[in-house]
C-alpha cells in the first residue's frame, strides 16, 4: 500500500457570469437565480499539509482568516461530515480579486474540500462535495464542477454544458469592491429593468454560437449593485471591440467577451493605463483539482 499523502496542492479557477438573472425570492431572503457560469484561467492556489490542528494562512492577502473565512468553513464542514479526527495546515495563495464577483472565496472553499478529500483519501463523491459546498456558499458547487454550467436555484442546481465557444475575456476590477448581500438587498428595493435570456444563452453554447452567447449575455444585478464605474467600463470595453460587456456576479468586476486575443489584449492595455487591475482570461474546462501531491 502506498504511503499516505503528506501534502497536496490544489488549483481552483475563478469564474465569470456569462449571464445572471434573478427569478424569484426564496424563504430566508435568498434569491432564486438563473445563470450561466464560466470557469476562467485565473486560479486560487491552495496548499494543504497533514496536521493535528487546523491552521490557515494567506500570505500577502488581507482576507480575514477567522471562522468566517470560506476555507475555514470548508475544513470544518469536511471534518464534521467525515468524522475524521484530524486537521490541516492550509495556505491560500490568492490571485482572484475580492468583492469582485469572480468567486474567489468560493474557489478557496472548493479547493479545501477537494484537497482534504485527497489528503485523507476520504473518497467523497462529487455530489457529496457539492452538498457540503452548498452549505458554505451559493457558488461553491460551481467552483467544484467548473467548466461551463447553467446554474439555477440558490446556485446549487448545476447543469454542465459543453465548453463555451472559443473566446477571450478582458476583466477589469474598478477601484472598489461590492458586497454581495448589499447588492441583493438593493435588488429587493429597486428590482431590475433587464433580465437576460439564460435559456437562449445555453442554446447558443450548445450550438457553438459565440454571437448568440454574446447577444444573451447580461446581469440583472448590474444596475442595483451601484458600481460607480460599471456603465463607463462597459462602454470602454465595447469601444475596444468587445462583442458583449457586463458585470460578473454581484460585482464589482466588469468584463468584455472578445472573439480574438489581439483585441482582448489591446483592451486590457488601454484599461490598464487608467491604473485599474486588469486580467486577460480564457475559459477553463475544469473545476478545483489537485495538481501536486507529496508523500
Ligand atoms: O452564499 P453566499 O455566502 O455566497 O451568499 C452571500 C449573500 O448573497 C447571502 O447572504 C445573500 O444575502 C445573498 N444571496 C442571495 N441569493 C443567492 C445567493 C446569495 O440572496 N442565491
UniProtKB/TrEMBL annotation:
InterPro entries cross-referenced by the UniProt entry: GHMP_kinase_C_dom, GHMP_kinase_C_sf, GHMP_kinase_N_dom, IspE, Ribosomal_Su5_D2-typ_SF, Ribsml_uS5_D2-typ_fold_subgr
Reactions accelerated catalytically: 4-CDP-2-C-methyl-D-erythritol + ATP = 4-CDP-2-C-methyl-D-erythritol 2-phosphate + ADP + H(+)
Q: Which residues form the GHMP kinase N-terminal domain?
A: 69-147
User: Binding of ATP: at which residues?
Assistant: 97-107
Q: Name one Pfam family in it.
A: GHMP_kinases_N
The answer, when asked if Transmembrane helix is one of the entry's keywords, is no
Output the SUPFAM superfamilies linked to this UniProt entry: GHMP Kinase, C-terminal domain, Ribosomal protein S5 domain 2-like
Outline the extent of the GHMP kinase C-terminal domain.
231-276
Q: So what EC number does this one have?
A: 2.7.1.148
Molecular function (GO) terms for this protein are: 4-(cytidine 5'-diphospho)-2-C-methyl-D-erythritol kinase activity; ATP binding
Would the keyword Transferase turn up in this protein's UniProt record? yes
Active-site residue list: 15, 139
Pathway it works in: Isoprenoid biosynthesis; isopentenyl diphosphate biosynthesis via DXP pathway; isopentenyl diphosphate from 1-deoxy-D-xylulose 5-phosphate: step 3/6
Q: Which GO terms describe its biological process?
A: isopentenyl diphosphate biosynthetic process, methylerythritol 4-phosphate pathway; terpenoid biosynthetic process
Class in the EC hierarchy, top level: transferase
- Known role: Catalyzes the phosphorylation of the position 2 hydroxy group of 4-diphosphocytidyl-2C-methyl-D-erythritol.
The family database entries (HAMAP family) matched by this protein are listed as: IspE (MF_00061)
Which family does this protein fall into? Belongs to the GHMP kinase family. IspE subfamily.
Q: What is this protein called?
A: 4-diphosphocytidyl-2-C-methyl-D-erythritol kinase
